[in-house]
Amino acid sequence: MQGLVIKAISGEYSVFNDGKLLTCKPKGLFRLREELVKVGDRVIVDEKTKTIIAVLPRKNELIRPAVANLDKIFLVFSVKEPDLNLNLLDRLLSIFEYYDLHPIIVFTKVDLLENPEEFLKISDYYHQIGYATYSTGHGLSFELIKQEISGSICAFAGQSGVGKSTLLNWFDGSFQIKTDAISQALGRGKHTTRHVELLKLGDGWVADTPGFGTIEYPNIDMLTFSQTFREFFAARKDCQFNKCLHVDEPDCAIKKMVKDGSILSSRYDNYLLFYKEIKENLKNQY
Ligand SMILES: Nc1nc2c(ncn2[C@@H]2O[C@H](COP(=O)(O)OP(=O)(O)O)[C@@H](O)[C@H]2O)c(=O)[nH]1
Ligand SMILES: [Mg+2]
Ligand SMILES: [Zn+2]
Fold first, then answer.
1. Vertex 56 angle, CA 45 and 28, to 5°
2. pTM across the whole model
3. Superfamily in which the 222-284 domain is placed by CATH
4. Are 82 and 72 in contact (CB under 8 A)?
5. Beta bridge partners of 212
6. What's the CA-to-centroid distance between 29 and ligand 3, angstroms?
7. Residues within 5 Å of ion ligand 3, judged at the Cβ atom
8. Is domain 62-208 given the CATH code 3.40.50.1860 in the classification?
9. Which residue, judged by its Cα, is nearest atom 28 of ligand 1?
10. Which end of the chain is more exposed for a tag (fewer CB within 10 A), N or C?
11. Predicted local distance difference test score (pLDDT) of residue 88
């Protein structure tokens, strides 16, 4: 039979097919390298011996968290406690654009803001450049987020304490995922690892991934990197130079747009930081 791997714990895989779960081991070849089977994989299983005999080609895969075939990734960011981290948001957006992973933004804890104007400007900006954005803490977006999940394999990514598990529990009370008091969530050691598991929500699947405090840029050339900032990519034709990287070039449309306020200045600041980081990485490779 063919099934979907929804859980992997110490060499045992839960494979979902037609409403049933089968606990399987991979056949010898795969056992040698555990990472050869990932949560999200579609696999062929020999039901008699309960072994995974083949992994079907993946449409994408992440290394940490180890998950394959994601249709959508929700980037969960609290607006307070912890403060909105636009640097991490821009980094994740850029990296997931590169992986072609369809990022969707969820801003949480909007109820904690006394003055939401500044936040609304930021949230509108990301919406206007083409990202689906939702916000929670006032109860408005739940049904819409649920609809986004329907029919897709999704993951919730974001720092510890932003409210990923809380959201998933709101969607389905039977999940009963452990949520952390904020102080504990922030103070928790970096090395706490938890397994990834796909949870069934309607006819979709969601993974509550362990915290995404940092993520490394993949090996990426500068021009491709510049294209992972959507609105920069859209406006690049107005730059004087073909292949403008929007850093030192004269007559750069992006820099003008930052000046006149049509590009969010934090976006450009973060772009420059990542640009330098990637350049450094490239240098260190030789
Ligand atoms: N005020 C407020 N608190 C929230 C909201 N969502 C989550 N929290 C709290 O934030 C803390 C961390 O939540 P948790 O779901 O464990 O975060 P995770 O580490 O991202 O899974 C918990 O104390 C939650 O009760 C929200 O929308 N508003
Ligand atoms: Mg959690
Ligand atoms: Zn430019």
1. 50
2. 0.89
3. Probable gtpase engc; domain 3 (1.10.40.50)
4. no
5. none
6. 49
7. 239, 244, 246, 252, 254
8. no
9. 109
10. C
11. 95
User: What residue owns the CA closest to ligand 1's atom 22?
Assistant: 181
pLDDT along the chain (286 residues), means of 10: 92 93 83 73 95 92 86 95 96 92 94 95 98 85 88 92 89 76 46 71 87 79 96 97 96 98 98 96 81
CATH of 2-57, one of 3.90.76.10, 3.30.470.20, 2.40.50.140, 1.10.3860.10: 2.40.50.140
SS3 content of the chain, % helix, strand, coil (to 5): 35, 25, 40
| Burial class of residue 174, CB neighbours in 10 A (0-12, 13-18, 19+) | exposed
Tokens (6 digits) for 59: 């449409």
Residues having CB closer than 6 A to ligand 1 are 108-109, 111-112, 136-137, 158, 160-166, 179-182, 185
Task: State the Cα–Cα distance between residues 147 and 151, nearest whole angstrom.
Answer: 9
Tokens matching residue 71: 């249709």
| One-letter amino acid of 121 | K
What span, in angstroms and rounded, lies between the C-alpha atoms of 93 and 107?
A: 14
